[in-house]
Input
Amino acid sequence: MTYQIPVDLRDRINKLDRFYAKHANCYTIDYDQVKEAILGRIETDKNGKQTVVDSLDQAYKAQVIEDGKQEDKVRLAQISHIMEIGKDVFSKLDETDNELKRTAKERALGAIFYRLIRLLNLYKTPVVYAPSYFKRLTQAVVGEAEVNSSLVKVIMSRFQIKDLDEAGSMITPDNPKAKSLDRLSIIMCCNAYKEHLEKARDRYNYVVKDKEYFTHLDNIIRRAKAIVDPETKVVNPLLAQFQYVLFIRNFNHVLEEKWSEIATILTLFKADLIKLQTTNNDTTPASIMKVLIKHCPDVAFATYIKNNVLVNVDFQDMSTFDKKCKEMLEVCYEYSLIALCLTVLKFTEGKKNYEVLHTAINDALMRSPQNGLDHQDIINAYTVLQDSITLMERTSVFELWGGKETFEQILDKQAAAAKQKLPKVDEEIKSFAMI
Output
């Protein structure tokens, strides 16, 4: 194999949305900026006394004074909740772990985005769940909110947001780094925020008291996810591509579940097989299959394990059983993911504006013309994926394709085409690898 599979392939596929966001040039802001914008920074005077300065609540109070208004108790309660989230996600965090930092930042930003959009909603009630909702909301409301909401001003400025989604620059703080807040960032961060809240539902009194809190949060995420505007019928290309990112990630999650199930089956199978060998030294294929089926949910599951996982096992020397099974499980897992990505790449080849998806997938796979799959590996990967799909009972994973059967037809067609074009596949794969 000329292609060097990343040692962290599973993790990279789980983070495919982040590769995608990077190449889609989505809203970005540094971890330290978010942390400081919410919690402020600590300053030490000449006597060694430490004081928190420029926290979110302090910035709001200063803005209220500048606007010639009075502090709003409701806004202060909302800010207090955001700061409570900030303290929870940022405190005691191992800041040498970039993954933990990214997760903490996304959760905190989710709380910020939720409040910003809820504030904008106060000035105009949307009539449809559509992409145009964000555009109209920004064009018709942000200017008004800028004038009337001190908290909107503070959030826009401190988090370097100039506008929402496809709208023009309605608000531009005196910061050349300010950029649009895209709907993909809203989806990712609000989902991260929601996951955090769901793990600690009773911790945040502000959320507990608001019986509609999760409903409002779900509505924000749902509106952001709308791909086709029902009014203009315009498709948002970034969100259309993002469906395939979610499909690959969801498929990976199901694979993880199945491989965990297989690992449990193999442990039980090994114990029973050793007993059988000790009793009557029986290692015939029929006897082995009988023991395997005993621990599998069905014959198809047992057949998959026999044909794909146990192929290199020497049943006369069980000392190598665990090592051989682990190796083959890893090969099958990696080949399944690679073929899954190849299937999506090939299926979307030639589609207009799908460059971001292709770049993100190849980045996650660490593929390039210099690090490409040879033809036999491509065929092997397709074959393994065809087998792996037989384990998938959760057909909802294939909803994007119109069902599991439709996806299998697409996969089978690609696999057959690869086998028929032996001399041409290498160049063909390399050509679309960098699309």
Remarks:
- Residues 237-280 form the longest helix (44 residues).
- The chain has two domains: 10-235, 240-433.
- Residues 125-131, 136-143, 166-174, 424-435 have pLDDT under 50 and may be disordered.
- The first strand starts at residue 41 and ends at 44.
